[in-house]
Design goal:
Blueprint (H helix, E strand, L loop, with lengths): L1 H25 L10 H5 L2 H7 L6 E8 L11 E10 L2 H21 L3 E6 L2 E8 L2 E8 L2 E6 L2 E12 L2 E11 L1
Antiparallel strand pairs: 1-2, 2-8, 3-6, 4-5, 5-7, 6-7, 7-8
């Protein structure tokens, strides 16, 4: 009688493992989501050139697939960081033309703007007797291209002839 109990337990464990393997093969595992042409082809240097500045140093252009590993939804992300030294006149033109050029580039890829939140701050302070102008422009755009939804943070920080641009694109279903 003791042996029948052991055989029943072993048979149950074996059957449970076999059903678990079969069931896990049927369950669709979340894969890496497809990305839009905007995500794959976005070129910061093309946008910078369209506003008349080509002397940018791209510090990073990296894609995270998937991003982040423990995210609740399947998403991919891309980050671009660039830096440039500009004269005061170039800096003024850049700050006036950059965000409209970004908006036009997003539109060229068919991105429909669903929402946008802006944070812009201009300031001037005196350092060693000279005025130093700074500008922070941090818009967040929520867009859709077909069934793909994304967030575009295309920011710049400009001060005393130095500009740093940070582009963060994140997309998912």
């Amino acid at each position: 009688m003791k042996r029948n109990w052991i055989w029943s337990l072993l048979l149950g464990l074996l059957l449970g493992v076999a059903l678990g393997v079969v069931f896990s093969a049927w369950v669709k595992r979340p894969g890496i989501p497809t990305s839009s042409p905007l995500f794959r082809e976005f070129s910061f240097t093309a946008i910078a050139a369209s506003v008349g500045h080509t002397n940018w140093q791209v510090l990073e252009d990296r894609t995270y697939e998937p991003f982040p590993a423990l995210a609740h939804s399947r998403r991919i992300a891309r980050r671009i960081v660039a830096h440039a030294e500009l004269s005061e006149a170039e800096l003024g033109r850049f700050t006036a033309q950059f965000q409209p050029a970004v908006t036009a580039a997003l539109g060229n890829y068919g991105a429909v703007n669903k929402a946008q939140f802006d944070l812009v701050q201009d300031s001037t302070r005196v350092i060693e007797g000279s005025p130093v102008h700074s500008r922070v422009d941090l818009p967040r755009r929520y867009y859709a291209i077909g069934d793909i939804h994304g967030v575009a943070d295309i920011w710049y920080i400009a001060e005393a002839g130095r500009v740093t641009v940070i582009v963060s694109l994140s997309e998912g279903p």
